[in-house]
Amino acid sequence: MAFQGEKGAYSEEAIFHFFGENVQTMPCKSIRDVFKNCEARVVDYGVVPVENSIEGSVFETYDMFLSSSVKAVGEIILRIRHCLIALPDVSLSEVETVYSHPQALAQCRGYLQSLGVSVEVTYDTAGSVKMIKERGLRNAAAVASERAAEIYGMKILAKGIEDYGHNYTRFLVISVKEAQYSPSSKTSIIFSTAHKPGALYNALGAFARNGINLTKIESRPTRQRPWEYYFFVDFEGHQEEEHVKKALAELVSYTSFIKILGSYPRASTELS
């Protein structure tokens, strides 16, 4: 199971949440590497973050889906509880700089500003904890999970430092294999439309006419011509269900490009 980050990263926690604790995990430096290892069949599955309830979408994941052959085969929603973590003998008053992934720093922006510390961006939450330990940084702390502190034998200075309590990250499980049919499914697609009035309205109408609920829509630049976009859409239903087949057939007539990323069981995690 591939994930972006070091041991103790939230993506690894999502793997254990979905597959159970008795699986082997493979840390990767980037989300791109997770996709590439799945494509090459180095791993059976990868887990990648796609959006956070506070800070929004993870655009690298969307961009990789556009070019990759892997499929979305599962969904995980994980409650994110951030901790401030330092060397075992360091106190909060000694901390001058806090390191972490940009999403984690943004989710704790208010708390960190109240401390009056400087912040430094790194590629991973757990990787920041590992770095502080390896370098013996006494004036530094990291924003990461409680599990990361346990793995690296570090001290938790504060728990629950995220600015908003309802902080969740949605992950997708990816694989070269399609997911088996589930009656409680979501489907993810990408499409683009002609650059003319009413094009997107007509395209989205295919879902409304067939009674399909959209759960997310996100636009990304095509990078081919200025001000033209791809649209990433998640909706309830499976691509093999008749009303979904009908909607997708209608959608084709309104789009210049369409790609089905996959149908997969909806996450069972209850938001609380």
Automatic annotation (TrEMBL):
This protein's pathway: Amino-acid biosynthesis; L-phenylalanine biosynthesis; phenylpyruvate from prephenate: step 1/1
Transmembrane segments: none
Alphabetized GO MF terms: isomerase activity; prephenate dehydratase activity
Keyword tags: Amino-acid biosynthesis, Aromatic amino acid biosynthesis, Isomerase, Lyase, Phenylalanine biosynthesis
GO cellular component terms, A-Z: cytoplasm
Entry's EC annotation: 4.2.1.51
Enzyme class, broadest EC rank: lyase
Keyword Nucleus recorded: no
Record field: catalytic activity: prephenate + H(+) = 3-phenylpyruvate + CO2 + H2O
BP term (GO), one: L-phenylalanine biosynthetic process
Superkingdom to which the source organism belongs: Archaea
Prephenate dehydratase domain boundaries: 1-176
Gene3D superfamilies: 3.30.70.260, Periplasmic binding protein-like II
Protein name: prephenate dehydratase
Species of origin: Caldiarchaeum subterraneum
